[in-house]
Amino acid sequence: MKDSGRFRVALVEPSPIVATGISAILSQSGGHEIAGIIPDNSYMAERLRMLAPDIIILNPSLLDRSRNQPIRTTYPIFNDSLLIALVYELFPEPLLKQFDGIITVHDEPRQIARKIRTAMDERSGNEDTNIGNDLSDREKEILVSVAKGATNKEIAVEHNISVHTVISHRKNISRKTGIKTVSGLTIYAVINGLIDISDSE
Hints:
Layout: E1 7-12, H1 16-29, E2 32-38, H2 44-51, E3 55-58, H3 71-74, E4 82-87, H4 93-96, E5 101-104, H5 109-128, H6 137-147, H7 152-159, H8 163-177, H9 182-191
Parallel strand pairs: 1-2, 1-3, 3-4, 4-5
Helix pairs in contact: 6-8, 6-9, 7-8
């Protein structure tokens, strides 16, 4: 999220008309900034990494479902963002349940904004229940950067993610470890073999 408080949104949608309409609705809502529109799934993961969005709104028809795996396993890039399905055709319910939220082309603008906000709130609530769980690989990477003294902006650049995503990861790390200070997190990283003590000096 930028200093303006606007969430960066990547829209993955093949229809120019639908993409233009959703972009206009989100831009007018005041809380969203369209980081980019991706019209197909060629190099989708690489393009999303470059955009570093807080929110990905994606037409599920663009997903490769041939592997029969959870979509966040097939596309790890989705783990760094809120994932919203943009639906205007029928999809299997097990697929749609893997998204953080669902919007349709029939939703009113206020409904779309509300559904995205609800999905954000629910994801934050789910993160609260992760206390005591092991850190994810991405969280370990962020923790190492924090322990080495990097700022949120530096971490965002290093890992090619948004500052908002860095902050979300840091909150998760603090919840899971129960440690809120940088010095405490540094000690945690050293004790758990994530960094050498000389790295933190």
